[in-house]
Structures are given as C-alpha cells and as structure tokens.
Amino acid sequence: MSPLHQVATWPVEFSAAAVVAHTPGTTPGGSAPHVVDTVGDVEHVVRLASLSKCMTAWATLIAWEEGIIDLDTPVEVPNAHLGTTIRHLLGHAGGFAFDGQRPVASIETRRIYSNTGIEHVADLVSRAAHVPFDRYLAEAVFEPLGMTGSELHGSPAYDVWSTTRDVAAFVAEMMSPMLLAPATAHDATAIQYPDLAGIVPGVGSFNPCPWGLGVEIKGGKSPHWMGDANSAATFGHFGGAGTMMWVDPQRHVGLVALTDRPFDEWAADALRLWPELSDAVLAQHGSAR
User: Fold this and answer.
1) Domains of the chain, with CATH numbers?
2) Is the pLDDT of residue 288 over 50?
3) How far apart are the C-alpha atoms of 283 and 229, rounded to whole Å?
4) Global pTM?
5) Which of 18, 81, 165, 283 has its CA 20 to 30 A from that of 242?
C-alpha cells in the first residue's frame, strides 16, 4: 500500500499528498522528476501559508538572474540596519522580528524567522520590475510551471493559495530547476550564514539553525518536522495552515502534503505524523536515484 494513505488518518477535514521522484531504475540526470504517487483531491485549493516563502524566493532569484535586483548590494527598506541585503532577508538573518516592522537584532547575529523580511524582498522586486509582486510571481514561476491553480492573495510570506498538483510541480522544479541556472539553485539550497542559532516556530530552538534562501534546511535539527531518514541536505518548508513540502537532494525524492487545518490546532500530531509519512515515503521511493 502507498505510504500516502497515511494522510487519510490525519485529524484534518481535508488532506492530499504527492510524491515527486525520478522514474525508478534511471539516474537523476536520465529523467525529469515527476509525480509518482498521489492521494486525495490534488486540485483542491488551500492556503499554503509559509510554503509561499519558497515560491517568493524562487521568483526573487529569477529577478536576480534577470539583473533587476542584486542579492548582495545593501538595500533601502524601512528601519533596516545599514548594510542589509536581500540575501540577509531571504535567509532570515536581517534581524527583523516575526511580524514586526523594526529589527530586534543586528544583521548576521541570529536566525530570526521573519515574515516582514520576506515582504520587504517582494516589495524590492516589485519596485525593480515595475509590476505588482503577485503578477511577477505568476509570470516568473506559476505560468512557466503550469501552476494554473496558484495565486498570491496577500502577503508573499504566507498568502499563496494553491493545489497539491501545483505544489508538486514546484517541488519538481526545486529538484531539477528549469527556471534557474544550476549555480543559482545551488545557492538557494545551500546554508546561508551557517553559524547562526535560531528558532523554527512551532518546532524548537536549534544551534545552529540552518536556512537557505527562503527554504529551511534540515541540517542536524532533531526532533524535526521532516523524517529521521531525510538527509541533512533536505530542504523545504512547512506552513501554519497545516501544509508541508520537502526535497531530499541526496535521495532524489520530494514530498508535498496539504491540509486545511491550522498547524497550531494539531501541532503535536503533525510533528509526529509528518516525520512518519516522510520516513515511509523515503523507504518506498528513496531508491529512485
């Protein structure tokens, strides 16, 4: 039986999931990653919450490659410390509070998970591109990947609404990028400011607390919302709407699981059930290399 059927037992009204992998028996370079298993209504639209940050970061990196913004040139955003860059903001190293408009720490001193930082990034991209960020995100990411059920409704940090099918397409893009150059994608999923300690909201405090550009990196975090079998290089995100996705680049497998129940309402269960599902998926599909 497919491990994805575990989601039917979760304490939520709606759930759907998909596994993305290379065709069994082929090398990663020999076939494009694609959906190999699903469960639930993969066309049902839900709010992704913080999975949105990964998509916002991907659009920002496309803007970097287009030459309209720079990751490492200091930027002017309200109340930011002198020397703050887009790289700082995408890596949660800019010192901004979770939802505060003023920094609570200096740059590169703590990993402070911040919606505000991501919102500043999107605003910078929008101003540089001379288009609203929701339009830029759609044209840069959603449309090329065929994510027809996806739309940004508000904050670029947590307000993308989408489907399991669409998020699986984005997971496949993160596994084998078509929209970004390999070096850019590698930078996005490499640890930024590796010595920083911080908190993964709802999970715990970690020292160090590795993060890429918009994506969380598992590293040595334990216990964690990803599985015990996930490699340290696994990257992805979970969202406060009860959503999660990850890519394990060493096992060449990706997973997305969406629900409609806020994480805070079933956090203890989610932090047990998500790792169980992740380990089961890796046990069945992790040999697809």
Assistant:
1) 3-21+33-68+115-285 (3.40.710.10)
2) no
3) 8
4) 0.95
5) 283
What pLDDT does residue 286 have? 82
Q: Which amino acid is at 245?
A: M
Q: Which pair of structure tokens corresponds to residue 75?
A: 């930027």
Above 50 in pLDDT, residue 139? yes
Q: Which residue has the tokens 């990663």?
A: 28
C-alpha span between 249 and 267 (Å, rounded)? 26
